[in-house]
């Protein structure tokens, strides 16, 4: 069916379940895509959802066709906060996902994925340039308060191809490393604040 929920479980090195929680609801379609730990030991979770979704004491409902969420939990599994930094809209079939997450020492979150349609956020929006499959990639920085600090769009130049952001990592200097793929035209140039 169209509905689905998410579980998070903390498991000891001996295989014992320390705690487990459920995210979702009877009319929720929720996907948990990526986890990351902050320097304080708090757990960050990102993914997509539609329908009324209970994140553990905070119920949110999507505004777009499907929205990207960012939720944080303490070491006991209690909800710290939950946000919707990006809202996704499309006139056709849904083609959007948030595939990777990283958290820096200041508690900011970084997310990447792909979209074909429109991604909206407080202060602006992005429209995909690709017309096939997964469209364009995005890389975004989300503040501790859940707002977009900056966002980058990655697409191909002059060709109708697909680009995905698939992985993130932070180095000891705080620089963000991003990886992804594009397909449909292996010789095409990519545009991410300039041509590569």
Detailed description of the structure:
The relative contact order is 0.13. The chain is mainly beta. The model has no long low-confidence stretch (mean pLDDT 91). Strand 15 (162-170) and strand 16 (176-183) form a beta hairpin. The protein has strands at 6-11, 17-23, 29-37, 43-50, 53-54, 59-60, 66-73, 79-89, 96-103, 109-115, 118-121, 124-127, 136-142, 148-156, 162-170, 176-183, 190-191. The strands form 5 sheets. A 6-stranded antiparallel beta sheet has the order 3-4-7-8-11-12, with no helix packed on it. A 5-stranded antiparallel beta sheet has the order 9-10-13-14-17, with no helix packed on it.
Could you write a compact summary of the structure shown?
The protein is mainly β. 0% of the residues lie in helices and 57% in strands.
Which helices and strands, and how do they pair?
Layout: E1 6-11, E2 17-23, E3 29-37, E4 43-50, E5 53-54, E6 59-60, E7 66-73, E8 79-89, E9 96-103, E10 109-115, E11 118-121, E12 124-127, E13 136-142, E14 148-156, E15 162-170, E16 176-183, E17 190-191
Low-confidence stretches: none
The sequence of SSEs as H and E is: EEEEEEEEEEEEEEEEE
Largest sheet: 6 strands, antiparallel
The Cα radius of gyration reads 17 Å
- Main structural class: mainly beta
Helical residues, percent = under 10%
Q: What is the count of β-strands?
A: 17
Distance between the termini: 42 Å
Count of DSSP-assigned helices:
0
**Would you tell me the overall average pLDDT?**
91
> What fraction of residues sit in β-strands?
over 45%
What topology, given as strand order, has the largest sheet?
Answer: 3-4-7-8-11-12
